[in-house]
Amino acid sequence: MKVLVTGGLGFIGSHTVVELQQKGFEVVIIDDLSNSSKEVLNGIFAITGKMPIFEEFDLKEKSKVEAFFQSHSDICGVIHFAASKAVGESVSEPLKYYENNINTLVYVLKEMTKLETANFIFSSSCTVYGQADELPIMESAAVKLAESPYGNTKQIGEEIIKDTCKVADNLQAIALRYFNPVGAHPTANIGELPLGVPQNLVPFITQTAAGLRKELSVFGNDYPTEDGTCIRDYIHVVDLAKAHVVALERLIEEKSNDKYEVFNIGTGKGSSVLEVIKAFEDVSGEALKYKFAPRREGDVVEAFANTSKSNNVLGWKAELTLKDAMDTAWKWEKKIRNM
Length: 339
Ligand code: WQD
Fold this sequence. Notes:
Helix content: 25-40%
Strand content: 15-25%
Radius of gyration: 19 Å
Largest sheet: 7 strands, parallel
Number of helices: 11
CATH superfamily of the largest domain: NAD(P)-binding Rossmann-like Domain
Bound molecules: UDP-4-deoxy-4-formamido-beta-L-arabinopyranose
Distance between the termini: 40 Å
Order of helices and strands: EHEHEHEHHEHEEHEEEHEEHEHH
CATH class of the largest domain: Alpha Beta
Number of strands: 13
CATH topology of the largest domain: Rossmann fold
Shape: globular
Structural class: alpha/beta
């Protein structure tokens, strides 16, 4: 069974390709290499012994999307990762985000409505909840006004899919709302490759330990939490990748009751920034250089998932720990820095 993975050379995409191949799916990747590298194909091959089919193009090229679906009408599903994801950049370049994340989604969905059966998995984000009124956050929690154009593209993306499912008889879809994806493949053949200075906590930690950054700034230590730092639900990328395979199988096996479903993908456990640093220090044996800095604009105090729906309805559960994530992220960082 052939699956299209858009953005399949990115961080979450590449780990999902590995899990799909290991489950016997044939994978076709479309990626424009705007935030990834062809080298990732070798990493995937090193793990699975299978080279995915790779087509390099930008999904904004509508005619190429049409031509692709004409020559691959036998695909059993699409997992759509391709999108821009830097929150800060989305504030300064909103139109880039609306064009990259919304136009491409529309083009892919449009072609999928022409297929006999169309199964679609969408990368959504816990960012749609903003600062939720209740913790842990359930899927039924209110979607808050988006904090950034990036977050807005995830909210609008979900609406576009929901509306299309209502009218396209052949289409069914699942949106996975990821909490904070971290870690790397345990083989250290694939991992996160942030461009420039990392904006996210874990790559900043590993780059600091590797000597690329002087020290980590912990954004805020006066939050109303036990140790004063923000709390997030850090989900290992391998667990997250597996959730996509389970979700796709759910659609293929027609197990879902609704044409459009949403699931939280997290561990259900919140960890503070200081706990993440501690987990890193424990597994690496390195003391991390860090200082306390002012709060970062737009940060919510606390976010972690209620995972009952993903555990009981989707049939998926996170198995790896924060320490597993920090250990693999560190192995990966050392490998790419030749340490
Ligand atoms: C985690 C915690 C920071 C960097 C973002 C997106 C979200 C999602 C995942 C993506 C926070 C603190 C961070 C640093 C720090 N989607 N921190 N020093 O903001 O929870 O989520 O990534 O596609 O939409 O907003 O993740 O890793 O940036 O921050 O103290 O140098 O670490 O304040 O508490 P965030 P993050």
